[in-house]
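Subject: Putative motility protein

B.,
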Amino acid sequence: MDIAALSMASSQANLMTQVNTAVLAMNLSSIKEMGENITKLMEQSVTPNLGQTIDVTC
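Prediction pasted inline below.
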């Protein structure tokens, strides 16, 4: 291989690494946001008195 081909291959590998890192960062941000949303939904769904009493009047 000549120097130009090695330089091109190295440059392409570096670009692929940068793109992969950017995609992973976007995915991480998305997953973090989904986790926060799930936490909010779980907090809203908590009803501590639910199921504590039974209405037996007819």
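The two ends are 90 Å apart (CA to CA).

T.
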